[in-house]
Write a structure and sequence with these properties.
Shape of chain A: globular
Structural class of chain B: mainly beta
Strand content of chain A: over 45%
Order of helices and strands of chain B: EEEEEEEEEEE
Radius of gyration of chain A: 13 Å
Number of helices of chain B: 0
Distance between the termini of chain A: 40 Å
Order of helices and strands of chain A: EEEEEEEEEEE
Largest interface: A-B, 22 and 22 residues
Radius of gyration of chain B: 13 Å
Helix content of chain A: under 10%
Helix content of chain B: under 10%
Distance between the termini of chain B: 37 Å
Largest sheet of chain A: 6 strands, mixed
Oligomer: heterodimer
Strand content of chain B: over 45%
Number of strands of chain B: 11
């Protein structure tokens, strides 16, 4: 069964600090997606990574993909309170008709 | 471009009843997926429809069913509701091809009493 693991599950960080969220997956998929979810809200698409070595940046967030290691990272630079949310990674598996598999989520709290 | 819409947004039912949730995808999107989200189990895949056909199904009992119409709108039905069915039900749409980014609706919060 395809597995998607994120760590850490919970992350409390101070403003202006840097940190990285890791996403490991067990399939050979070369496509990975990052989403953000605010409490009580739906999921918002952040990044779509479509090939090995892909890197995308938006503001203080940068996502990368290493398909050989089956690893994606979401790097947070100089965190601010507005980044507090739960972050999910997901892969889709062509062997199962592009079904999405989500990670467990990382709950990020940025402390002033 | 309008986003994914789901109705109703909130629903309260009692055990044993059944419920139907509706999802309207982004215009042009042919794939609709449904997820159940609970604090304990996280995001769990229910099923995916593409061009009116169920393409994938998650590990849920037969009480959970769905369908998709020719205009890509989708419904999911849960029969004989149980307390454990209380969850946020999310619908997502995508083009369904290689570029498979999923866009999520606001969700339906179902409470079973």
């Amino acid at each position: 069964e395809l597995k998607v693991e994120q760590n850490p599950l919970f992350l409390s960080m101070q403003e202006e600090k840097n940190y990285t969220i890791y996403c490991n997956y067990s399939t050979t998929s070369d496509r990975l997606y990052w989403y953000r979810q605010d409490p009580g809200k739906s999921l918002e698409s952040l990044f779509v990574l479509l090939s090995n070595g892909a890197v995308k940046q938006e503001g203080r967030l940068m996502a990368s993909l290493d398909t050989k290691a089956r690893l994606s990272t979401l790097h947070i630079t100089a965190a601010v309170h507005d980044l507090s949310a739960t972050y999910f990674c997901a892969v889709d598996d062509r062997d199962t008709g592009n079904q999405f598999y989500f990670g467990t989520g990382t709950s990020l709290t940025v402390i002033p | 471009k309008a986003g994914v819409t789901q109705t109703p947004r909130y629903l309260i039912k009692t055990r044993g009843q059944q419920v139907t949730l509706s999802c309207s995808p982004i215009s042009g999107h042919r794939s609709v997926s449904w997820y159940q989200q609970t604090p304990g189990q996280g995001l769990q895949f229910l099923f995916e429809y593409f061009s009116e056909t169920q393409r994938n199904k998650g590990n849920f009992p037969g009480r959970f069913s769905g369908r998709q119409f020719s205009n890509s709108r989708s419904e999911m039905n849960v029969s004989t509701l149980e307390l454990g069915d209380s969850a946020l039900y999310l619908c997502a749409s995508s083009l369904g091809g290689y570029y498979n980014e999923q866009f999520f609706g606001p969700g339906t919060r179902l409470t079973v009493l």
